[in-house]
């Protein structure tokens, strides 16, 4: 003699197995990691002033000042790129992916 609940128990176990198998075969689409948009200046090569063939004292002073400005611009662009990279990585870690 079979117990009354055995038929329903077998049906429930089979049903659970079918549902788990269906869930296991579904593909989960990966989420896109955030990307920051950088200004064009970050991708431009740094420029450096050069002296003419026969430099004067004024040429030297001008190049000295101009090079200082160019170095500051280049360093600011580099810092922006590095900050963006670190921010993207941190955002990636927060989403659970890298």
Written description of the protein model:
- The protein is 59% helix and 0% strand.
- It has 98 residues and is mainly α.
Top keywords for this entry?
single chain, 98 residues, mainly alpha, 2 helices, 59% helix
Q: Can you give me a brief rundown of this structure?
A:
With 98 residues, this protein is mostly helical.
Order of helices and strands: HH
Helix share bin: 55-70%
Strand proportion, as a percent range, falls in under 5%
Oligomeric state of the chains?
single chain
Radius of gyration: 32 Å
Distance between the termini: 59 Å
What's the SSE blueprint?
Layout: H1 6-25, H2 57-94
């Amino acid at each position: 003699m079979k117990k009354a609940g055995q038929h329903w128990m077998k049906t429930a176990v089979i049903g659970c197995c079918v549902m788990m198998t269906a869930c296991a075969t579904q593909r989960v689409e990966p989420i896109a990691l955030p990307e920051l948009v950088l200004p064009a200046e970050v991708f431009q090569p740094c420029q450096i002033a050069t002296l003419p063939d026969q430099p004067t004292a004024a040429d030297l002073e001008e190049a000295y000042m101009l090079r200082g400005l160019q170095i500051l611009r280049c360093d600011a662009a580099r810092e922006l790129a590095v900050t963006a990279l670190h921010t993207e990585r941190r955002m990636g870690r927060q989403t659970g992916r890298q």
